[in-house]
Amino acid sequence: MRFHLALALGLLASAPAALAQSCPAVPKPVVDLDVERFYGDKAGSKVDAGKLAAHDAAVAPLTAFLREVTQNADKAVRRTARGSRDEVAACVLAWLEGWAKGGALLGSMKSQQAEYQRKWDFAGLSLAYVKVRPFASPQQRAVIQAWLVRLADQSRAFFHDTGRSRNNHWYWLGLGFAAVGLDSPKHWEMARGIMRDAARDIAADGTLPKEMERQSRALFYHAFAVMPLVVMAEVAASRGEDWYAFENGALHRLVAVTHAGLIGPETFDRLAGVAQERPVNTRAGWLQLYEARFPGRLVGPHPVVAEGHRWIGGNALLLKDALGVAR
Fold first, then answer.
1. How are beta strands 308-309 and 314-315 bridged, if at all?
2. Tens of pLDDT along 122-169?
3. Hey, is 282 helix, strand or coil?
4. Which has the closest alpha carbon to 6: 318, 324, 326?
5. Residue 39 in 3-state DSSP?
6. Residue 323 pLDDT more than 90?
7. Residue 95 has pLDDT above 70, yes or no
8. Confidence tier at 21 by pLDDT (50, 70, 90)
9. Backbone angles phi, psi at 3, to 5 degrees
10. How open is the CA angle 212-200-195, to the nearest 5 degrees?
11. What is the pLDDT of residue 5?
12. How far apart are CA 54 and CA 58, in angstroms?
């Protein structure tokens, strides 16, 4: 699917009245964030229902904003009717520009969990922007890209403390960096470095030792970790780089063991030495992208994996389409 930037910009410039009628007002930006951890144990294996409810309520405005942005970004990629596609993309850009100008997520992150939340949402916002970037005016690009770079740098600052665990959180940061890195060589280099870290983290049997520490949620966190890594590898593939090959194909090993565990959780019962929670959330997008890149490589039945999630910018295969656009 190819977009024609000059034509898109001309159509967007001529349709402000239509946009005003069809695009909801930009929600108030969330600048500061105060959310607490929702686990009841140190290992992070037992969710406290009360804490989770409080967490979900606190992040509800972020969830609603990013869900709307990613769903409409998908529509902009999916729709073939030129006027409809341009109108939807213009709305996404208006929302992103509004939050950029409002300094969304650039305020005080009052807890470690708030830092985690910002990082996940930063990745989703950056990937949604990739889908609508061809429709953006030069002014919108300047505003939105500067905001995303600031989000990247502030999210990275959290890890300046060497005591921070560079587990799946580090990989999610890398995904956001890869998206921003399409316009910033510095952040692209940092994303590549994080992928190399992840590849080194993957053991010979395909497991991630830091995620195995999650006890009954070890399999859940392997699926959560493989998700940003496969998406990041696909972003790299769009630039002609093979990040799947790092450390003798480490990511292939992680995909294979996670796939096996999701088909038969008893695999991780044995590996982790503790029964895994069931049913397991298979997360989203990674299997579709991997199968599209390596058809038939994974043996046996496939687990049911959602096509997309707001933290990977929406639908994964539509992201793959958008990444194919000449930049």
1. antiparallel
2. 999 999 999 999 999 999 999 999 999 999 999 999 999 888 889 999
3. coil
4. 326
5. strand
6. yes
7. yes
8. low
9. -105, 150
10. 100
11. 37
12. 6
